Structures are given as structure tokens and as C-alpha cells.
Amino acid sequence: MAANQLFTTLNNGVIMPLLGLGVYDVYGREAEQAIGYALETGYRLIDTAAMYRNEVEVGNAIRAGRIPRHELFVTTKVDNADQGYDTTLRAFDQSLKALSCDYVDLYLIHWPLKSSRKQTWNALEKLYAEGRVRAVGVANYLLPFLKELAGHATLVPAVNQIEFSPYLFLEEELTYCQTNHIVLQAYSPLIRGRRFDDPKLRQLAEQYGKTPAQILLRWALQLGVSTIPKSATPSRIRENFDVFDFSISADDMVRLRDFHENFRVVEDPIELL
């Protein structure tokens, strides 16, 4: 199934799958089983974070899956409590140990904390310069944070991971990222199922013979947006990966953009300004 996957090229030439598995709020044996099933299904991108407290389980599942490490793309993030220059460097070492990996494919600032985000970014640049991470980026960086970062960073972030869906269509962030060769990555792309009963979405799902979840994921992929739906249920993991055998028409892509209602399931990062 992995051959069906779509990929994108980051601004430093690294290849990243567009579709991955998020493992927020999944722990212990359940996390290991979910990741194992995802790898069997064809997923090659696994997105975790120190804040999720499951990096050990991610590492266990990767080893058990027996897929060559170079075929996988592993993302983790520095915890808010560890932000700052020296503390980020120590936190990265702890994440590597927990993951039992020699390197991380993508390391992100999890939230743009006002007091420490600049120093934290400097630490990420150091890790990248040392070859300990293949790419560095940010998460929850809305436009003001991106513009601030551009004013002091040496590197352009490879990825910006934000909450993004047709119901939270952040056009300014999407345009900025595309213009500056930053891959936008959507977390909570399925809005935790809270709009699956929307008649507009259900009509499109029936039209394409797909589920509401598959419509939302395919929409993101066709925009060139990476997406990391979270699930621990084998049937849903499989359903979320079954999005490579159809395309949404240009007119319907526009219709989906018009679903925007500024609907969030996670707090608004702008409050951190």
C-alpha cells in the first residue's frame, strides 16, 4: 500500500510523506498496536511529541515493525516546559533516547512561547547544523509568529504544523507557507468528528462514494497540505489511508474552502502573542 502514498519535497530537499499518523492522546500498548497497524497499512510518517508522553511506545513500534529506518519519517517536538536554548538541546537528547533513534526526521517547536521561542529556534538550527535532525520546523505558528521568525532565523522552517481544515481555512497562513516554501501540515484535520454530520460534507461524501473523513483528508492533500489524522482504531486507520484512489473536482475544492467558520478544537495560538 505504501506505493499509493503521496510525498512532498521539503525546502532542504528531504522527502516527506504527505499523509501520516498522529499519536496524540494514545498511550502504552494501544499506541504500539496503532502504530504497528498503521505501518502495515502503508503509513510511513509518524508524528509524536515529548508532550504526548509516548515517544518510547513510538520507538518500540518502529522496531517491532521491522521497516528500515530510512523508509520512515519520524517527527517529534520540544515540550513547552523544555523551551530555551540549552534546555531544548537536552530535551532533544531525551527524545532521541526515548525513541531509540539515532536521528529525528523533523523536530518542531511545539508552541510559540513568547519568552523562549527565539532561543528555542536557535537550538533547532544548531541541531540541524550538526546533522542530528534532517529538518526543523514549527507548530502552531500563525502569521504573526511566522513573520517574527523570518526576522531573526537563519533557516526557513521546513514545516509549519497548525490546526487546519475546511472549517478552519487559514488562507493567509497557507499562502505565506506556499510562497516561502514551507510545507503546511494540518493537525486535527478531521475536527475530531465534530462536523461529520454537516449536510454539506455528507453530500460530498455520498457524491464521491467516500466517508466524510476521507473527503476532509483528500481536500488537504490536493492543496499540498500534509495531514496527520490521529486514530488508534484499525478500521479508521485503514479508512484514513484509503484516499489515494479518487480526486475532488476543482469546483468542489472551492466549495470545501467555503465551509470555513473559524471552528477550532484546540486553543488559538494567537493568545501567546
Automatic annotation (TrEMBL):
Pfam families reported for this sequence: Aldo_ket_red (PF00248)
The keyword Oxidoreductase is annotated on this UniProt entry: yes
Keyword terms of this UniProt record: NADP, Oxidoreductase
Residue stretches making up the NADP-dependent oxidoreductase domain: 29-258
UniProt KW Lyase keyword: no
Entries under PROSITE patterns matching the protein: ALDOKETO_REDUCTASE_1, ALDOKETO_REDUCTASE_3
Gene3D superfamilies: NADP-dependent oxidoreductase domain
Signal peptide segment: none
InterPro entries: AKR, Aldo/ket_reductase_CS, NAD(P)_OxRdtase_dom_sf, NADP_OxRdtase_dom
Family, per entry: Belongs to the aldo/keto reductase family.
Annotated protein name in UniProt: Aldo/keto reductase
High-level lineage: Bacteria, Pseudomonadati, Bacteroidota, Cytophagia, Cytophagales
